[in-house]
Structure formats: C-alpha cells, structure tokens
Amino acid sequence: MKKVIGIILLLGSMCSNLHGQNKKEYSAALVDLFKATGTDKTYIVAMESVFDVMEQAYSDVPDEFWSILEEEMRGTSLEELADLVTPVYMEYLSLDDIKAITTFFDSPVGQKYAESAADIYSGCVAVGEEWGERLGKMIVKKIEDAGY
Mapping DSSP to helix (H, G, I), strand (E, B) and coil, where does residue 32 land? Predict the structure, then answer.
C-alpha cells in the first residue's frame, strides 16, 4: 500500500511539474502572438499612459528616473501580462491553437489584418451605432403601431 501511495505521489509531482513547464511554454507562445498581432505595441501605449499619469502624480521625481523605469518595464511587462492571462487563454485555446494563430498573423495577410484591425473596429462601431439607432426606431414604430 505504501508503494502505491508513493507511486501516486510521484506521478502527481511529475504531472504538476509538466503542467508548470507547459504553462511557461504557453506563456512564451502568447508573447509571440502578442508581438505578431501588434498587441505588444498597444500594451506599450497603455503602459506609457500609466507612466504619464504617474509622472504627473509624482512630479518631484526626476525625468531620468522615469526614463530608466519605463525602459525597464518595457522589457518585463509583456511577459508578465502573458503570465497573468495564460490561464484564461488555456481555458479556451490549446498551445497548438496559439501557434497556428501566430503563424497566421506572421503571414502577409495576417499582418495586413493586424495593421488595419483598429480601423476596421472603429468603422464597425460607427456602423453598429447607426444600425442600433435604426433598429431602435423600427422597434418603437412597431410598438406604437400596435397601440402601446
């Protein structure tokens, strides 16, 4: 019985270690995906906004300090973000899925999509607002026509 328990504990330990390795590989693959999709650049813009706010709040801190700190954060923050969101992505996409998506975004058409995605989104939001307004008017008309 002790041998069986020992084997179970050993296998559990090995599986846990393997999961940790898979999580690291997955997180690294997410960093590659973020770079391929341009998410890394968006993240840097967001980080710069945080620094702007912090610099205003701590105006007595010298500019040189902020420059050094920002450069330091640029090197680690994307990896930290990937580590934090890895469990969320793992719930929905396999490592192979992430690699395939990255391969797409590394292709010319994927790069074209990544470069124009923000503009496409903005255009769709404007169209969606117009559509929602028309839909709302149609619903109100139907309600009024029904006598309500």
Answer: helix
